Amino acid sequence: MVKFFESNYSYDYSFPAVTLAYFLRYPNPYSTHVLSTDVISRTIDSAGRLQTTRIHRKSSRLPSAVLKLLPKSVLGNVSGGKSESYILETSTIDVKEGWMRTESKNLDWTGILSVVEKQEYQRHIPMDEGDDFSVGAGTTGVVTTVMFRSRLGDRLRARATRKGEAAAADTDDEAKKGFLASWSKTGIQRSIEAIASRRTETQLGKSKEGMMVVLERMRHGGLVGVLEGMRKDRELYGRNDKMET
């Protein structure tokens, strides 16, 4: 079972400004759950396109509706729904053609829900906006597509068939498994995917707001203003990564 979510948005800022803001978007007041960002690789391919791979460490909280469905054997070390997770992000920028494509996917909880977000940023006219990161020339459109896939039903059924599982489970787990057993595999997966889809709408809104904070800092203070804002946010929210330059 796979569920898709798609949205379109246009920033009233130039393509160079938006792409720079993308890489400098953490930290900001709308992303306090992002704890750190590290660059794994950054290269220029034979076509002159910049390719970057980064990893983000985030503080996450499983929705209460999902927690009610999961036995403790699946939750592991999660306490109160809180845990840390890692997001792998890859991106390719073609400055000459005016586009950037990104892909982000979770590295944790894939047995419960796999989420892949793809974005395509496209420079809009005028084409002569230059490369000075001006925020006053041109606009930039972005199409965001998110794919959700839950294998929870398969995983729980596999666990239930393991020898000794029933003996090792506590009463709470048994009650939850009994409840899950009355569901079809498709019903479990659809429920998890629907919850994730609703949360994604909210998160995408916050992501846009965070980008706007960075772009406004750029408008008023240039790159120095962005870096100063990052420094203040880092002190305020306790992030421990280094600034990208």
Give the helices and strands, then pairings.
Layout (H helix, E strand, L loop, with lengths): L1 E10 L3 H9 L10 E11 L5 E12 L2 H4 L4 H4 L6 E13 L4 E8 L7 E10 L16 E10 L2 H9 L4 H4 L2 H11 L3 H53 L8
Antiparallel strand pairs: 1-7, 2-3, 3-4, 4-5, 5-6, 6-7
Summarize the structure.
The chain has helices spanning 15-23, 64-67, 72-75, 152-160, 165-168, 171-181, 185-237, and strands spanning 2-11, 34-44, 50-61, 82-94, 99-106, 114-123, 140-149. The chain is an alpha+beta fold. The model has no long low-confidence stretch (mean pLDDT 78).
Please report the number of helical segments. 7
Looking at how many chains there are and whether they match, the oligomeric state comes to single chain
How is the main sheet built? 7 strands, antiparallel
Share of helical residues: 25-40%
In terms of DSSP E residues, the strand content is 25-35%
- What would the principal axes of the Cα set say about the shape? globular
Please provide a written account of the structure:
With 245 residues, this protein is an alpha+beta fold. It has helices spanning 15-23, 64-67, 72-75, 152-160, 165-168, 171-181, 185-237; strands spanning 2-11, 34-44, 50-61, 82-94, 99-106, 114-123, 140-149. A seven-stranded antiparallel β-sheet has the order 1-7-6-5-4-3-2. β2 (34-44) and β3 (50-61) form a beta hairpin. The protein starts with a strand and ends in an 8-residue tail after the last helix.
